[in-house]
Amino acid sequence: MTKEGFAHHRPQWKTHLGFVLAAVGSAIGLGNIWRFPYLCYKNGGGAFLIPYVIALVVVGISLMVLEIGLGHKMRGSAPASLAGVSKKWEWVGWWQVILVMFGIMLYYAVIVAWCLNYFMFAVNGAWTDNPGNFFFNQFLMTSSGPFQFGELRTPIMLALLVVWGVNWLIVFLGVEKGLERANKIFMPLLFLLTAVIVIWSVRLPGAGEGIKVYLQPQFERLSDIRVWMDAFGQILFTLSLGFGIMIAYASYLPRKTEIVRDAFSICVINSIFSLFAGFGVFSVLGYMAESTGKQLSEVVDQSIGLAFVVYPKAISLLPAFSREFGLIFFAILVIAGLSSGISILEAFTSALIDKFHYSRKTVVSAVSVAAFVGGLVFTSRAGLFWLDIADHFLTSYGLVVGVILECLVVGWVFKAFRLREHVNHFSAWKLQRWWWDVSVRFIVPLVLVGLIASSLLEELASPYGGYSRLAVVLIGRDWLIFTAFAAVLVSARNWKSEPAERMITHKNA
Ligand code: TRP
């Protein structure tokens, strides 16, 4: 095969809608349904929307344009695209996809597996008597610390096998027949089921109180730096930025594409979904507070506790059709989780295909098996601790450092104006230099460096979450170091065909 031939055989989305739905499918995940409403509640209710919208505009939209524009221009996965800028920086792309695929995704898939279990528990109401005891002691059987592994929990392991089976199948079938088709089924279904749940919940008695707590602004909270850190961190996570995902998805776009408008729509749809889902979540909590005669603040919990303890309890209190409500609710979580999971499997797979020209089927199969095996530690009785520590370090540090490097490489090495000109060449909506170049080169990196610095300061004051220093170092810090090391090793290998040759120039129409 000629080098040209390879670039031309790149898979392509069949329809433009297919691309947008796949990107939205990646963005909308467990983070929208649990994390967002909880962060709102914790960080000043409606007032949290101010830092959130600022983060969305300053970091979210500009980075979304950057990632889609870069993938489109370089027609390659994250490592291929960054190598197209400069081989010296290729490792950043590898680090992103390795960190997410063999880090975040390992436990994300386990949470989806829990949701699948809970979907089945909804049928017989297994959690009804005491949801907290059920979740921690009967379901997870959580041990006393991160190094007390105990046995692997069979129900979780079996569900994890199903999750990886589905992920494998969809990505195995390819971009058009797998990812595009799956998202065209998943997304409408997700919107429909969510609408059912929200309309159902807001009519429950006490719903108004719940919504008031969710959105009532407490402006004084905005002086707390942690509120701002949460807003910026949430925007990166919820939009799948710095995961290498949007770059890979954009590399399957045809030449003529409205990059700015698409980036904008994906960001807006994702945030509206979060806001909307929050109405459902808090209405039900309001109902629960009213029917048990408690204050709402007494019933809310951390995000995982909220999803698997508080919410199941609220569901079992519903006056009618509580089983159906539970089924729909956990189906929503499973669908949202699967459509996010397949996006990283694709991003990782396409990186290996770009570099080594392996066959898709071999790569997807090997990676799925490895990820299932790697995820098993999270199905042990120490799984919850591992999940908590890994999540904190990978998302608060790994992802953020990756994004900073990505901005610097594109903004300064490649030059922001060149990517802007590429994007504007194809877009009717034009990027303006005064905000886009300035964001990518200065504002985003500076804001994110500030974010990291302040979390580091907290970290040094006391190890995260009260765990032992040993656990935090071995599970958190070392995970970051190993993935970075792996990234450097892979990027030192030779390319089968030069990354720069796949690039779209304005001449090779
Ligand atoms: N954006 C997703 C969310 O809000 C997170 C996500 C997207 C993700 N792709 C992923 C997590 C791949 C793990 C692996 O939940």
What does this structure look like?
The protein is mostly helical. The chain has a single domain, classed as Amino acid/polyamine transporter I (Up-down Bundle). 76% of the residues lie in helices and 0% in strands. It contains 20 helices and no strands. The protein has helices at residues 3-8, 16-27, 30-42, 49-74, 78-85, 90-124, 131-139, 154-172, 175-202, 207-215, 225-238, 245-250, 259-292, 296-299, 303-317, 322-356, 360-375, 383-426, 433-461, 469-492. Helix 4 crosses helix 5 (78-85), helix 8 (154-172) crosses helix 9 and helix 13 crosses helix 15. The two termini are 21 Å apart. The structure holds tryptophan.
| Overall helicity | over 70%
How many structural domains can be distinguished in the coordinates? 1
Query: Which regions are unreliable across 5 or more consecutive residues at pLDDT < 50?
Result: 1-8
- E-strand count: 0
Helix-strand makeup class: mainly alpha
Q: Write down the secondary-structure element order.
A: HHHHHHHHHHHHHHHHHHHH
Number of helices: 20
How far the N terminus sits from the C terminus, by CA atoms, comes to 21 Å
**Structural Rg:** 22 Å
Tell me the name of the CATH homologous superfamily.
Answer: Amino acid/polyamine transporter I
Provide the list of bound ligands, each named once: tryptophan
- Main CATH class: Mainly Alpha
CATH architecture: Up-down Bundle
